[in-house]
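Task 17 of the worksheet. Students: predict the tertiary structure of the chain below and write it out as structure tokens. Keep your answer in the requested format; marks are given for formatting as well as content.
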Amino acid sequence: MRSYRFASHAAVLLIAMAMWSYGAGNQNVSLASRSGAVDAQAANAQLGDVVVGRDSTIIAPISIPVAPLPDHRPIQYTIKADDTLLAIAKSFTVTLREITWSNPGLRQPLKAGKLLWLPPVPGVVVQVRKGDTPASLATAFGTDVPTVLGFNRIRATDLTPGMHLVIPIDPTVGPSLSTGLPADPLHPEALVCPIKGAKMIQGFGPTNFALEPSYAGYLHFHSGVDLLADYGTPILAAAGGKVTATGMADYFGLRVEVTDTYGLVEIYAHMQDVSVGVGQVIQQGATVGTVGSTGLSIGSHLHFQLEVGGTPTDPLPLIGC
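Model answer:
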């Protein structure tokens, strides 16, 4: 939305002072000039963007929006056969994070006929639950009460369980944790490298490396990226969220699973030890444990995996790797 420009109080004060000074220093103004017989320059004095017309009328320029104002209602989209999250995101100019954030519990593959909620502006669609208040919603999403009520054009008394609201979120700031702290203070809406400056030794996707298990019709498939690091190297949270699992797990060995504020899941595997507990809320950049070589692993490294709707997804780019 374009902003509207109005004369500031300071500009108005300056003009008033200038007019008073002009009148005080010109006591012998002719009767003709008082009657309106003035030239164009005298009729319209200008200071910056503000124009003073006849009879000291202050004229402030106003920008007229040339694009339609955004719809404040949440978008409802019914999934069609062969739809993908990437295609839907591109079609509605939203991010994968905004889709998963607005649709808790979303799983892939997508099911035709299922309804998706999408935000019309950067942010999230929230379904109001029993006990929610404008203040609690504002705190949970790192905004303020006037934004929650004003954007949705409602009053506090209109809030009822089951209704859907759009919560605009500044992409440069990102969402907050349940503690009220920013979830991703380092790089909002991005994943940071769990090991700063680490070299990637294996990427995401089909591979000839026989140690990798079969997946998605491929004989061998690597479900994340491997980052080279020495034993005991600290592992940092790529995104802020809640720790939803720790401990030994199949090929992963000792691992930590974090469900971030957008509903995406980051898995840190082959660890030597863990420094967080299930249910703990952590910010982006917090230490979750150290590098090891547990599980299906040859040598010390970190296997980092991103899951969107329960499906392994390429986590790149990782800022700082």
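Marker's comment: The chain has three domains: 9-59, 75-168, 199-313. The two ends are 36 Å apart (CA to CA).
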